[in-house]
Amino acid sequence: MKKLYLLKIYSLSIFLLVCFPSCKTELKKENIKVEETSRVEYLPYFGDESFTPHWITPGSAEEKSFHKIPDFKLTNQSGATITQNTFAEKIYVVDFFFTSCPGICLKMTNNMSKIQNAFKNDSEVLILSHSVTPNIDSVSTLKTYADKYDITDNKWHLVTGNKMEIYTLGRDHYFVENDLGEPKGIDDFLHTENFLLIDKNKHIRGIYNGLNRSSIAQLITDIKALKKEI
């Protein structure tokens, strides 16, 4: 009963849905209330597109064999090659965006900035934002976007690269789209408001609505919880 109760509370907090706002030319500064502790002893693990939580003990044999994000090779706004080695022994937050987005991306960038600011002096926490229009978002374009929105190099990586690789990562490994039962191809546009929390062992430990203040506050709390795991 206790585990079921915790599951309901956790699921409610991270699967909140909100309507898409219209795009704005400026990002607004907002304060968010952050809880100091997570509501569960260990964050759940997620291993498929249904995002069914698995309650696994960190360090166990089950944890070691659970779904992990595979290696990748992309390029960030500074022209540096980014792979899983960049995130070795790091906790990181993932999203998917594009610099010319006419809709939700500015709100997502604003909220991801809160994550950057909350952990700006913590080298253990990084951010990884994938362009879903890599043919348009060149290194120089990403750099211009990074400078415009005060994105810190080596803390928050905006990446471009092979479109097939980025879309495969998003759909088959991060599971960022919720269209269950509707397979998509490379010509189907990938766009989502979801943020994902990845632990030091490359496991997905949370999915959050990148447009929702309460969800962002929970994400910050959960990052702090992950830092305390053995």
UniProtKB/TrEMBL annotation:
Query: What S-S linkages are listed for this chain?
Result: C101-C105
Q: From the UniProt annotation, give the residues forming the signal peptide.
A: 1-24
Keywords assigned: Copper, Disulfide bond, Metal-binding, Signal
Every copy of the Thioredoxin domain together lies at 63-228
Q: Which Pfam families match?
A: SCO1-SenC (PF02630)
Name the Gene Ontology molecular function terms of this record: metal ion binding
Residue numbers binding Cu cation: C101, C105, H191
Q: Which family does it belong to?
A: Belongs to the SCO1/2 family.
Q: What is this protein called?
A: SCO family protein
Q: Which organism is it from?
A: Flagellimonas aquimarina
